[in-house]
Every structure is written in structure tokens, then in C-alpha cells.
Amino acid sequence: MKTFLLSTILICSAFLSVAQYQIGHVNLEYYDEVRERWIDTHMYYPSDIGGEESAISESTFPYLVFGHGFSMNYSDYDYLWEFFVPRGYILVMPATESGLSPNHETYGKDIAFLAENFYEINIDIENYFFGHVEPICAIMGHSMGGGASHLAGTYTEQINCIVTFAAAETDPSAIEAAANSVDVPVIVFYGEGDAVAPPDENQIPIYNASNSSCKTLINVLGGIHCYFAESQWACDFGETMAGSDAEIEREEQHNIVCDILSMYFDYELKGNTDAGIAYLDSLENSTRIDVTRDCSTTYTIDAEANPTNTGTIAGTGTYEQNQTCTLVASANNGFEFVNWTENGNEVSNNSTYEFVVSENRSLIANFQDNVSVNSNITDNIYIYPNPTNEILNFANLPANAKHILIYSINGKLVNQQPLNAKVNISQLESGQYIINILTADKELIYTERISKK
After folding, report:
1. Rg (CA), the chain
2. Which residue of 97, 140, 327, 396 could cross-link 315, Cys pair, CB 3.0 to 4.6 Å?
3. For the chain, what is the largest distance between any 2 Cα atoms, rounded to a whole number of angstroms?
């Protein structure tokens, strides 16, 4: 088993290489017509030059809507935008409900509104991010903002995943909301030393109640509540009074969060399957976290030999999303492996086919007689013209040559008939074919590859 220290070094090196943007910032207000409410919002985004109201880079980006903690604000989480923006994400951070008497429901609806409408708003050419936003969104939050993010999951379905840090119970209940949320992947982080929002009363019940078909609970070993943010006097004071016990530094807790989420978001929001593999590897091998995971999203991988009884296949079955499936095709005596096909298309010519599972698949392992092409018992037979678009002529046929079998290059039998001096193949599609000539007793005496124009 790999140690996480080595894995972390390799993974961080790989992901640091994709940091390619400067950080731009703009403060805008968005209007929710249904609630007649303005939402003060700060956006940090990829820019070629960076700075206040700088032009956004010429590409499109997924966005992360983040909710702050109690008596905190967007500005207490700069490590998040400093990490994710250069890697091609827009951070959308509502600055509402930052006082001493926040309305949790209102804040959850602010988060939901931005998640649901940020892309739609910026379809309009008059808007700041026109043409630069992908309709792909994660909602995130810390403490109160974490609980509010679970509330937001009941107010909108226009999200791809929910990620929370030390999520606190809210009014209305974040625990009850998790049980009724839209079914998207959920990750619940907590620090094992958190005495502000104790895991047994907050994050663990949220995880247990969650109706997500793929949910993950991540315990940051030695972590505490406020280390999911930058140092902020109100949070730090509350942590001290509550008696939280930190065994790691704040920077280390930030690094853990960013290491894991850089892999996860690159997979979940950008479709990078290599990042998905690295993410699962880290969940399994990390010594910095304890992980509980329940992902019921599974897929079935089927495969069969063609022709029947020409070979065997190992590796089929049920797999979780992002697991690696390895199919192995073994030829029976008298046959050899040709290739793997799916829906008539070749996907591999290696008898061992490895891929990351993301959907149900049904594959064909194609085999053929293991008499090599043009290595024949009878060498005097002459087939012409080759290539042809219609008629194949056969010369020097021995008396015992009685049948012709024509196989596609994928090993599928496409034609069989008594052998004559002339055979019409005009009905075949253009491509490569294998001609097998057999005796009356079905003994193979000649094989040759031909081309149909």
C-alpha cells in the first residue's frame, strides 16, 4: 500500500501544474425577483492579468457557490479562491447574513438562488461574465454556511454536488434538509477536535440523514472547526471558549481540503477521470483523514465471446463509479484473440482491456481461427482480384475445397456458401475480411485476408 505522504507529493505536483490563471475580483448585487431581495455577492474568477474588475480569461468555467460561517464573511476564506481560481473555477460568495442574528433559511435561499441563476444571468450579453460560465455548479459552505448549503439543496435542483465544512445544524434543520435534498453527490468534512459544532451532533447526523446516492464523510484528523477558515477573531474566540483541541496547524487543514477537492472537482465538475481515480486512491490511502463512504451508484459491465465458445472472459460484474475494470479475454484451443468491440466499434486490440467505469457497458471479445493469414495447408489457391468491389475469382481449387466462410475483421461471420469458382461479395460493406476455405468435413484448408472496395 502506498503511503499518503508519497501520494500527496505526486498528486500535488500534478495538480499544481494546471494552475494557469491570475485572480480577478468583482463585487456585484443580484436581484431575486421572487423574494424581492438584493444579494450582495463577491466573485473571484480566472483572469489573464488579475486585479479588481479585470477581464475574465477567454474560456468557460464551472462555478462554486460558497456560504460563510456564523458572524463571518466571504473574506475569511481567501485560501479557497487563491487555490481554486488559478485552476479554472469561479468562486461565487454571497456576503449576506453576516451579522449576529442571521436568518438561516434566507441564507440558504441566497445560496440556492446564485447556484440556480448565476449561469442563466450571464447568458445575457450585458452581464459581467457573459459567455464565460458553464452550467456546472457545486454549492459549498462552512459552519452556518455549511448547514445553509444543505438547506439550499432543498430549494434548487440546479447543482452538481454539495460540499460542506463543519456544517452546523440550522433552523430550519439542516439534518432534515439533508434527508430531502436533491440527489447529488455530497461530501461532509469535519474536524475531529471540533467543540464548536461537535460532529456527533452536527456533521455525522447530516451525513447519516442524507438521501444522496453517493455520500462521503471525511474526518480531518487533528482538525477543528475554525481551521476550515482563515483566522477570524469571533470564530477563534468561540473555538477557544468551547475547548476545541487542534493537533494540526491551520495551514495543514487547508492543504488537506484543497488536495482532496482539487481532485474531486476536476473529476465531478470537469470530467477528468484520472482525477477521479486519484481522488478515490487518496480516500483509501490517506493517513490524514478517516473516511466513511456510501455510494450506491453502480454499473454493470457485460462481455461475451464472438463467435460463441471461442474464448473465455474474466472481469465482468458490478462496479462503483470511478472504479477500474480490467477485462481479460483468453482464447480457447484453435482460436486467437482479435479485438474488443462495443456497438460495432473497436475499443482495444489488447486481450487485457482496462478502463474507468462511468456507465453500463456491453462488450464483445472477438476471436478467430488461429491459422495465421496466408499460412495454409494448400498454398496453390489463388483469389483475385484483391481488392474487389463485387466478384472474387478462385483458381487452383483442390477437389476437396467445398465451402467458403467470410468473417469481418472483428471476427463476425458475415457470409457462408458453397464454394464456386466465382463468389459475389457486392452485398458486403467496404472493409477488410477473412476468407476461410473448408472441406466437406469443415476442415480448414486455406485462409486469406481480402479487401472489399
Report:
1. 31
2. 327
3. 100
Full-model pTM: 0.69
Segment 267-294 shows an average pLDDT of: 91
Q: Is-cis flag, bond preceding 172, omega within 30?
A: yes
427/90 Cα distance (integer angstroms)? 56
pLDDT tens by residue, 99-144: 999 999 999 999 999 999 999 888 877 888 999 999 999 999 999 9
CATH (residue range 298-369)? 2.60.40
Q: Residue 227: left (phi > 0), alpha (psi -120 to 50), or beta?
A: alpha
Q: What are phi and psi of 346, to 5 degrees?
A: -70, 130
Alpha-carbon distance of 233 to 231, in angstroms, equals 7
Is the Cβ–Cβ distance between 312 and 305 less than 8 Å? yes
What pLDDT sits at residue 376? 53
Nine-digit cell string for 249: 496547524
- Which of 185, 176, 98 is CA-nearest to residue 139? 185
Topology (CATH level 3) of domain 4-295: Rossmann fold (3.40.50)
Cβ distance 272 to 266 under 8 Å?
A: yes
Task: Label residue 6 exposed, middle or buried (CB < 10 Å: 0-12, 13-18, 19+).
Answer: exposed
DSSP one-letter code for 55:
P
Cell of 196: 464548536
| Alpha-carbon span 76 to 271, nearest angstrom | 30
194, pLDDT greater than 60: yes
- Does 382-452 match 298-369 at the fold level? yes
Choosing among 3.30.230.10, 2.40.30.20, 2.60.40.10, 3.40.250.10, the CATH entry for 382-452 is 2.60.40.10
How far CA 153 is from CA of 103, 163, 166, in Å, comes to 17, 11, 17
Domain boundaries, the chain: 4-295, 298-369, 382-452
Alpha helices in 23-171 (DSSP H): 78-84, 104-121, 144-152
The mean pLDDT value for 353-367 works out to 91
Nearest 5°: the CA angle 58, 62, 65 is: 125
**By the 8 A CB rule, do 171 and 140 touch?**
no
DSSP 112-138: HHHHHHHHHHTTSTTSTTTT-EEEEEE
pLDDT digits 0-9 by tens, 310-357: 888 988 887 877 778 889 898 887 788 999 999 989 999 999 899 988
What is the total residue count of the chain?
A: 453
